[in-house]
Amino acid sequence: MQLIFSDAQFWGDFLPLTYTKPIAELRTGILTFSERWQKLLDSLEVSYITEDYLQKKYKSYEKKESLLITPNFLPS
Q: N or C terminus of the chain with fewer C-beta within 10 Å?
């Protein structure tokens, strides 16, 4: 299953950190938000929905079975 991380409306809340990377790539301790979700859900495929200028750098999603996550909180 593919995990899709969406910045949604929270992108502006994390400025200036999110000028250069999606929210899912921000570090909280030793792991990023995306790494924490990958470990919890045992998934290797990750995609991002982010601002247009960042979308060129980060992998966009494919149309297949996916789980859409807004990564602005820590999974437990």
A: C
Q: Is 65 left (phi over 0), alpha (psi -120 to 50) or beta?
A: beta
Would you say how long the chain is, in residues?
76
Q: Which residues of 46-56 are buried (b: 16+ CB within 10 A; e: fewer)?
A: bbbbbeeebee
Return left, alpha or beta for 42; rule: phi > 0 is left, psi -120 to 50 is alpha, else beta: left
Nearest to 49 by CA among 9, 16, 14: 9
Contact partners, residue 37, CB within 8 Å, separation at least 6: 3, 5, 24, 43, 69, 71, 75
